User: Fold GB1/RHD3-type G domain-containing protein from Aphanomyces astaci.
Amino acid sequence: MTDATAVPPVEAPAITGAKQIVRINDDGTKFELDEAAIDEILHKIDPDMKVAIISVVGAFRTGKSFVLDLFLRYLKYTSSHPAPDVTSREWALACGPQLEGNSNFEATNGETGFSWRAGRKRNTTGIWMWSDPFIRQSATGEDIAVFLIDTQGMFDSETSQMLTASIFGLSTLFSSYQIYNVDKRVQEDNLQHLALFTEYGRYVLPNKQMKEASMRSIQSFARVISDKHLQDLCELDATDVEDDDGTADTTDDTNHVDDVPVVRPFQHLDFLVRDWQDFKRSATLADKHADMKAYASEVLSTRKQQDLADTREQIHSCFASIRCVLLSHPGHAVTDLEYDGSIDEIDGRFLELLTSYLNTLFGPESLEPKTIHGVAVTSRELLVFIKSYAALFKEATIFPEAKTLLEATAEANNANMKDRALAKYKAEMQKKVGLRCSYVQPHHLTEHHRLCLLGSLTIFDMGAKM
Assistant:
């Protein structure tokens, strides 16, 4: 007999603040993905909503977590206010006079912000994700959920080189916008490490000739099927199953292989140069932006030396867009061991440059969802990819072979497209055999099933490009 006085179980409180989604063992040689945390974070939004992941990577003790907490303040402020003027501190002060995440006096463990502190010892370990999404609108008016990711600093004395490569690789695979935080200038070793850690991204893409042949086959198949209902099915998913340039495919058989847009494995890369010292005192903000463009050209231009040229070619082949953003020093008070997070003590020139950068980074024109093979992925699909990539890196005793990474990507991508095609088939069949539908003659049902099946297979073929 059931006890009528039994107290119902209390649900665990929802995750808030920064949550560690990848943990490192004490030896600094292995990591573990917290799948439950990832599930809970991504389930805060509609499973079909597209997602943008902004990730910051770089050497340890270079201020990544500190600047991410300023990112958080900006996103919180602009959730209810327009983009601020670059000369205004209002957005930075809106949540209080002191910045969250300060662990100079006691560990914060991510409750209020990404943990940071002054000093020489490492602070962040593993990968942390802000648990609350920020819903923003793209230039097309589409809602996109924005998440921030903080990563363990590279090249500390406690983490193996292989694990460092894995953390960097995972962060890059997860993100739609990778921010590479560097100190004072972009040096050649920064570029070499970036090229090494992103090398495997190039192999995530399928062979270009195979992809073009596949798309020609799909287009021919769609033309042969003359039934209007099937055409409607394909057109309905045209916005979801995009071509490589981010638009629905409108090409015909006369196009050559060379006309296929090149899809790079990763989307955007910013070199965020901290403590930049070469701005003229009299320089305006426009002058500083011009300096940034000139510096990017200087750093990434082709070199005569083969090894230097190869490094730059590799980076360009992996990212769709690359730029350099230069930030001046935030003020010496910020680096003090007793700094209490006071916003007023942050140098105004630093805040002006940061505000300008954030207005661009989170503006509608720049905001894009995470894509894989040029196709935007939803929250539900991203979850599958994250788990697949994490499992791959975790099981490998060395940095994974390109073939293995390709197979993992193909498996996750095809699983997502199978689910999408099956959902479309079920939805279309429900129109004939749903609870409120009248009797359907067997031959009509068979024909409807055939058309729905063909439409679903077409949707799968258009999306499963690997």
About this structure: The chain is about 40% helix and 15% strand.
